[in-house]
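Contributing new records

If you add data, match the layout below exactly. Sequence lines come first and carry their own label; structure lines follow with theirs. Keep one chain per record. Anything else will be rejected by the validation script.
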Amino acid sequence: MSAGDKLKNVVQQTVGKAEEVVGKKTDDAELHAQGQKDQSMGAARQETEKAKDATKD
């Protein structure tokens, strides 16, 4: 996995967490849900990249 891909996934998870917290504090259900979605997508891509790396070894 390239460092750029890994960083991109971590950033997406971090932004998702921030969106989730802001959505919860402001009672914005849509923003809260989007934050959770972004976190899940970032984590899923991270796992996919780890699986790709494992098959290369």
